[in-house]
Design goal:
With 206 residues, the chain is mainly alpha-helical. The chain has one domain. Helices cover 74% and strands 0% of the residues. The protein has 7 helices and no strands. Helix 1 runs antiparallel to helix 6. The longest helix has 31 residues. The radius of gyration is 19 Å and the shape is globular. The model has no long low-confidence stretch (mean pLDDT 92). This is Acetate uptake transporter. Its main location: membrane. Keywords: Membrane, Transmembrane, Transmembrane helix. It holds the Pfam family Gpr1_Fun34_YaaH.
Length: 206
């Protein structure tokens, strides 16, 4: 029998999330207005590419990856809907209060997903921790009407998106070269196991 190694869809999903997050939050930070580039990225890379990555994670049996990529892909598509449906005359514009509640719900979801990263590498933990903070800032800014908080969220979102881009490229480059070129931080469980199997004073750590 032949066994085929399945490719890792994680980098695709992470890049779709990371690049779209950076682009949107450059807008939130005040660098440029909302435009077709952001909306198109939200539909095709942040939305469809992440959903595709989630379905591929299903094929690999990765429940966390399936849930994360599919959910955040739908987040981007729903955000595009919030922006476009009123312009198309298909729905009324979203009130800042409702938008704040919507963002807060995504923040709660992301917080629970962060707990699911506690045995993963440090880079993935940072992506979800910073995303939780981002949703909190965006929700608070919309609920209170404080423009300064939304600007701060923009800068924090750039950092969040950049961390996802870094992790995506680390997974691709490290796999292609067969060694760790871009470190992602050893998973906590793996570090404990290594410590138990190989104490600091033994030669296996050399």
């Amino acid at each position: 029998m032949h066994s085929n190694k399945l490719a890792n869809p994680g980098p695709l999903g992470l890049m779709g999330f990371g690049m779209t997050t950076v682009l949107l939050n450059l807008h939130n930070a005040g660098f440029f207005p909302m435009n077709a580039a952001i909306i198109s990225m939200g539909i095709f890379f942040g939305g469809l590419a992440q959903i595709l990555a989630g379905l591929l994670e299903y094929k690999k049996g990765n429940t966390f990856g399936l849930t994360a990529f599919t959910a955040y892909g739908c987040f981007w598509l729903s955000l595009v809907g919030i922006l476009l449906l009123p312009a198309m005359g298909l729905a009324s514009a979203t009130d800042p209060l409702v938008l704040g509640i919507w963002l807060a719900l995504w923040g709660v979801f992301t917080l629970f997903m962060f707990f699911g990263t506690l045995r993963a590498n440090r880079a993935l933990q940072f992506v979800f921790a910073s995303l939780t903070v981002l949703f909190a800032l965006l929700a608070f800014g919309n609920l209170t009407g404080r423009a300064g908080v939304l600007t701060l969220a923009g800068y924090e979102g750039i950092l969040c998106g950049a961390s996802a881009i870094y992790l995506a490229m680390a997974e691709v480059i490290n796999e292609q070269l067969g060694r760790t070129v871009l470190p992602t931080g050893e998973p906590m469980a793996a570090a404990r196991a290594q410590k138990a199997l190989c104490p600091a004073d033994e030669s296996c750590r050399a």
